[in-house]
C-alpha cells in the first residue's frame, strides 16, 4: 500500500521472515537518499506513530524504514510468530536489512536503535558490520538491572526533593531486587511517577495515555494494527522481560567494525545515562562519539529535534563520507 503525503512517499510493506510475515513502514522523499533502519523499543512498542506526531523530518535526508518487530503491530500474528526471543528478533532484523539493501540497491545502510531496540541493533551491527555504514544508539541500553536501580533511586530522591510524601511512601513500600521485572508494584511506581518526574519518555509533557492517543491518531494504521500493538506490548514484555532484565549490551555487542554514535538524554531514567556512558566507554569501534542531550529524557530525537538532525546529517553522514 502506497500513501503519498506532499513530497513524502509512505509505503506499508510486508516480507517473509522465517515463515512469519513481518511488517514495516518506509518513508522517503528521494529513493536515492541513504537508507536508515529504525529499530523500535519496548519490547513490543512500535514508535512510528510517536515519531510522526513529533514531526521529525529525517525522511528528508534518509529513506527511513520503521520495522515492527515480531510479536507486535504490523508483525503480530499469534499463529505464526512462535516463541518471541531476542535471537529471533535479531535474525528478523537482518532479513529486513537484506530486503532494504536489495530494494534500494544500496551496499550498506544506516542502523538506528532506540531503547530495547538499541540492544537488538547493537547485536546486529556487532555481528554483521558488513551491512552497515554506522550504528546510532538512542537511549542506549547497557545493563538493564543496574539501569533500573538508577531509576528507582531517581524516583525516591525526586519524591524526597519535592516533599511528595505520598509518593515517597509508595516508592519506599516497593522492594527493588533482581526480580524487579516480575513486580507489578514496581511497574506501578514507574507508570505513576517516571513521566511525572521527567525521567520517562520525555523530560516534560508526555504520558502513557499520550502514547495511546498517538497510535489511535496515526492514519496509516488500521484498527486491527492498533489492536495488535496493544496485544504486542503485553505479550512481548511477557516473552522478553527476563532476557531484558539480565541483559548487558557490552557483553552481547562488545566490538563494532563500524563508526558508533550514542545519543542520550541526561534526564533519561528508562535507560539510564550512567549505563549508556558505561556502554560507550567499554565498546571497541574504529571511531565512536557520545552526545549528551541536556534537555532530554528518553527521546532526544523527539525532544531536541534540531540538534538530533545536526548530529545525523553533519556528524554521522559527514563521518561516513
TrEMBL record:
InterPro entries: AB_hydrolase, AB_hydrolase_1, AB_hydrolase_fold, Peptidase_S33
Record keywords: Hydrolase
Residue ranges constituting the AB hydrolase-1 domain according to the UniProt record: 34-304
Source domain of life: Bacteria
GO molecular function: hydrolase activity
Family: Belongs to the peptidase S33 family.
Entry protein name: Alpha/beta hydrolase
Species annotation: Oceanobacillus kimchii
Amino acid at each position: 500500500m502506497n500513501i503519498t503525503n506532499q513530497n513524502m512517499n509512505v509505503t506499508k510493506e510486508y516480507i517473509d521472515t522465517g515463515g512469519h510475515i513481518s511488517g514495516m513502514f518506509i518513508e522517503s522523499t528521494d529513493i536515492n537518499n541513504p537508507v536508515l533502519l529504525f529499530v523500535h523499543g519496548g519490547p513490543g512498542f512500535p514508535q512510528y506513530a510517536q515519531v510522526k506526531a513529533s514531526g521529525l523530518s529525517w525522511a528528508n535526508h534518509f529513506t527511513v524504514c520503521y520495522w515492527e518487530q515480531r510479536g507486535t503491530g504490523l508483525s503480530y500474528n499469534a499463529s505464526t510468530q512462535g516463541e518471541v526471543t531476542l535471537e529471533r528478533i535479531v535474525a528478523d532484523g537482518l532479513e529486513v536489512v537484506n530486503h532494504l539493501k536489495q530494494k534500494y540497491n544500496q551496499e550498506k545502510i544506516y542502523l538506528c536503535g532506540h531503547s530495547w531496540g538499541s540492544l537488538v541493533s547493537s547485536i546486529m551491527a556487532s555481528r554483521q558490520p558488513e551491512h552497515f555504514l554506522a550504528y546510532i544508539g538512542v537511549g542506549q541500553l547497557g545493563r538493564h538491572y543496574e539501569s533500573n536501580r538508577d531509576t528507582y533511586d531517581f524516583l525516591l530522591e525526586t519524591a524526597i526533593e519535592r516533599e511528595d510524601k505520598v509518593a515517597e511512601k509508595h516508592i519506599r513500600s516497593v522492594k527493588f531486587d533482581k526480580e524487579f521485572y516480575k513486580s507489578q508494584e514496581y511497574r506501578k511506581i514507574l507508570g505513576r511517577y517516571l513521566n511525572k518526574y521527567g525521567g520517562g519518555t520525555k523530560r516534560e509533557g508526555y504520558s502513557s495515555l499520550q502514547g495511546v492517543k498517538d497510535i489511535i491518531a496515526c492514519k496509516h494504521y488500521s484498527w486491527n494494527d492498533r489492536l495488535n500493538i496493544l496485544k504486542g506490548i503485553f505479550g512481548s514484555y511477557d516473552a522478553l522481560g527476563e532476557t531484558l532484565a539480565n541483559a548487558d549490551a557490552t557483553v552481547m555487542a562488545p566490538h563494532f567494525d563500524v563508526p558508533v554514535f550514542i545519543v542520550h538524554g541526561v534526564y533519561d531514567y528508562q535507560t539510564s545515562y550512567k549505563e549508556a556512558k558505561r556502554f560507550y566507554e567499554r565498546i571497541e569501534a574504529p571511531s565512536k562519539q557520545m552526545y549528551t542531550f541536556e534537555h532530554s529524557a528518553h527521546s532526544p530525537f523527539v525532544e531536541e529535534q534540531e540538534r538530533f538532525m545536526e548530529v545525523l546529517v553533519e556528524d554521522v553522514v559527514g563521518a561516513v563520507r
